[in-house]
Design goal:
Helix content is 18%, strand content 36%. It has 644 residues and is an alpha+beta fold.
């Protein structure tokens, strides 16, 4: 060192050499030999090798997803690898490139045409040298020297076998590469797991599935099963059904069976049972129709293998991400949520015709409530709807999995991938105790769902407008479906003196297509005739319809009030109730007198309509909620603080 101080060039060389030596030593010695002897990072969780990426190359774009090949080196040997798609951004952002040194946190070892391919699932960047470290050679062509004894059970077994030198006898047993898979038929990466199938095949966790695997076996519980659906198009016709699978890792995945597989497996598979499944194809999940946690989904055909397994209890019966009913107002429309609630009421099964397909659909409305004291309507479809009254006896605690949030008639829920009676989870016991102690007492509750459609969610405090904004913003003129706005106002006038009463006569048929909505006329024989369903009935049903004026601090406007909103305004009094009292003018007038000057949060639709060749702007109340003065004061104080 002292001599080099008098000769700067010598000093420069003497420092460069140890730095290069340090970089070589920083790569995991014999790491490539070790990693090809393992099936995955789960085989030795302490093994976190440091390698250099000596080559990164794009190898194709399949199904719109770019894939990258990466060659891994420990300075002495190299092996082929692939980046999992979740690491693509590291290449695209130049976070990793040729010669980058990485630490491998998670990987799987696949075999493609007899060659090892390391699938990198999780890596971290260690260094970015400009040059290649060492002169590595292909591990596949290297001689079969023994692997470190601590990394592979196969290596441990082979080290205990007597060698020719130890026995003193020669042998003609050919040399075998200890780093190649022991069974060439088993080419799938295998996650180290204590359990295995009844056939002895090792189990791959759903969380470890990826696009690069050829052969795998998963063990999972069927948590839901769809009905059989058929299709017919220019390519042909066929049938399919889907199931959702949950394994011991807590990950769920969607699997679909097509054509012949439907006939083979539909009656075999039962919800709640545990199966091993193999021989399927992995594909990227279509998020439009897939609500499972896994980013992949599975397709099975008639050659796939599905076996019923003993339920050892290592897979939970269900996995829920439960949401309180009171929180649904904040949920995004179209989102799928899990709900556990008391089913208070089960409506009649109704049949309607799909406008899109022309097929008949069955639906059934359920009223749900939980310990937040809030109700919501859930609509079941198909077999779930037709069997609801047999499968669910109200009142009962039921968990609904992956039901869709909608805004039809306020906040509502539609469909469910499955429902479970009194599931064995802590929330069930808590809900049952609440129902017995206070929920069943019939106290005041708040419902998120209204019986009429179009109401949608009520606007937030900061989203409200004033009546004057109808004219100021020109609402209703440029939108064929009408414009919506919400405001706080009180009734200043209610028009009750319509001839015959403030209602219209409606068809008493509760089923489609009338559903108590269509107008009927009285015939000369005293019966009531409906042109919609072509029925004749001895009686009719009456529905509220009248107009009035509302006012706020910005102005006033005429509004139309229909049956559901009128019943809210009159405290539940129906038009039939008022008709029975119509002969007593004072009683009839009292309903309107009580409603006068009451204050409400109104949601209205403003739309231009043509009546007798004259354009008129019509404002219709589609939803009305009583003012919560505590919340109103809180919102006002918050708004004042923001201004100040």
């Amino acid at each position: 060192f002292f001599l080099s101080c008098h000769r700067p060039r010598v000093l420069q060389l003497s420092i460069a050499f140890p730095i290069r030596l340090f970089k070589i030593m920083s790569l995991t010695a014999d790491g490539i030999r070790t990693i090809v002897s393992l099936t995955s990072s789960g085989s030795n969780k302490t093994f976190k090798p440091v390698f250099q990426l000596i080559s990164i190359k794009a190898v194709g774009n399949k199904n719109g997803v770019q894939r990258y090949r990466a060659v891994l080196s420990d300075g002495s040997h190299f092996v082929q690898g692939m980046l999992a798609t979740q690491l693509n951004h590291m290449v695209q952002s130049n976070e990793i490139q040729n010669n980058t040194v990485i630490s491998v946190e998670d990987f799987m070892n696949n075999s493609v045409q007899g060659r090892n391919v390391i699938i990198l699932l999780k890596i971290t960047v260690v260094d970015k040298p400009e040059t290649r470290i060492g002169s590595p050679t292909d591990i596949e062509k290297a001689d079969s020297s023994p692997a470190p004894a601590f990394v592979s059970s196969n290596a441990e077994k082979s080290s205990n076998m007597p060698s020719a030198a130890n026995s003193g006898k020669s042998t003609n047993v050919p040399r075998v590469n200890p780093y190649s898979p022991t069974d060439k038929r088993q080419t799938a990466p295998i996650v180290h797991q204590a359990s295995s199938s009844s056939s002895g095949n090792p189990i791959t966790l759903i969380a470890q599935l990826n696009m690069f695997q050829n052969r795998w076996t998963i063990k999972a519980r069927v948590v839901s099963k769809s009905e059989i659906r058929t299709w017919s198009n220019a390519r042909g016709e066929g049938s399919l059904f889907s199931i959702e699978l949950l394994d011991s890792s807590g990950m769920d995945i969607k699997a679909t069976m097509f054509k012949e597989a439907v006939d083979k497996f539909y009656n075999l598979i039962e919800v709640g049972q545990v199966y091993t499944l193999s021989g399927g194809r992995i594909k990227v999940a279509n998020l439009q129709y897939n609500t499972c946690k896994s980013q992949f989904e599975l397709n099975f055909d008639q050659n796939s293998i599905i076996r019923l397994e003993d339920d050892t209890g290592d897979i939970q019966a269900q996995s829920f991400d439960l949401v309180k009913i009171s929180d649904l107002e904040k949920a995004e429309v179209g989102k799928n949520v899990d709900i556990i609630a008391v089913v208070q009421e089960i409506g009649d099964v109704q049949t309607l015709t799909s406008k899109k397909s022309g097929r008949e659909l069955q639906k059934c409305d359920l009223t749900l409530i939980d310990d937040s004291g809030v109700q919501v309507r859930l609509t079941l479809w198909g077999n779930q709807a037709s069997n609801a009254k047999n499968d669910i006896v109200a009142p009962r605690v039921v968990a609904f999995r992956k039901t869709r949030v909608g805004d039809f008639g306020g906040v509502s829920l539609s469909g469910a991938s499955g429902f479970f009676l009194e599931p064995k989870i802590p929330e069930t016991e808590a809900l049952m105790q609440w129902w017995e102690s206070e929920g069943s007492s019939g106290g005041a509750v708040r419902s998120l769902s209204k019986s009429s459609g179009g109401g949608g969610k009520m606007a937030l405090f900061q989203e409200r407008k004033g009546i004057a904004d109808i004219k100021k913003e020109g609402l209703g003129y440029n939108n064929e479906k009408g414009d919506y706005l919400s405001f706080k106002a009180h009734f200043t006038f209610l028009k009750k003196d319509k001839e015959g009463g403030a209602w219209y006569t409606a068809c008493p048929n509760k089923e489609d297509p009338c559903r108590n909505r269509c107008k009927v006329v009285q015939t000369t024989d005293g019966n009531w005739q409906c042109d919609r369903c072509q029925g004749t009935y001895p009686n009719c049903s009456r529905k509220w319809i009248f107009s009035g004026t509302v006012a706020d601090d910005t102005g006033s406007t005429w509004v139309s009030v229909f049956d559901d909103q009128a019943m809210t305004l009159f405290g539940g009094t129906t038009a039939d109730d008022a008709f029975a009292q119509y002969d007593n003018q004072d009683v009839y007038d009292s309903h309107f007198a009580k409603a006068m000057h009451t204050e409400w949060i109104l949601k209205c639709r403003v739309k231009q309509e043509t009546v007798n060749d004259e354009a008129r702007l019509k404002t219709q109340i589609v939803r009305m909620d009583p003012v919560d003065y505590v919340a109103e004061c809180r919102d006002l104080l918050s708004a004042i603080q923001k201004v100040s």
